[in-house]
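Suppose a colleague, Dr. K., hands you the sequence of a protein chain of 82 amino acids and asks what its three-dimensional shape might be. Before reaching for any lab equipment, you can write down a predicted structure in token form. Begin with the sequence itself:
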Amino acid sequence: MRCLHNASMNITIRNVPQEVRDALAKNAARQGKSMQEYLRSELVKLSRKMSTEEWVAKVSEMKAKYNTNITDEQILEARNRE
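The predicted structure, expressed as tokens, is then:
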């Protein structure tokens, strides 16, 4: 059996509003990328982003490991300021 970990896939998204398409095209142009390059890089970033629940769980693990007294609310406030 061959390993296909580098295989790519085509994705089609229908019914994208014109104003959204235009905004994406402007963002791509600002970065000097084609729309395809820009959307691919944004999808990669999105796929690597932790959900809020995952992030809170990871922070809670670290809090327990290092025995800190910082509350979840303080951590979320700090994250939102960044």
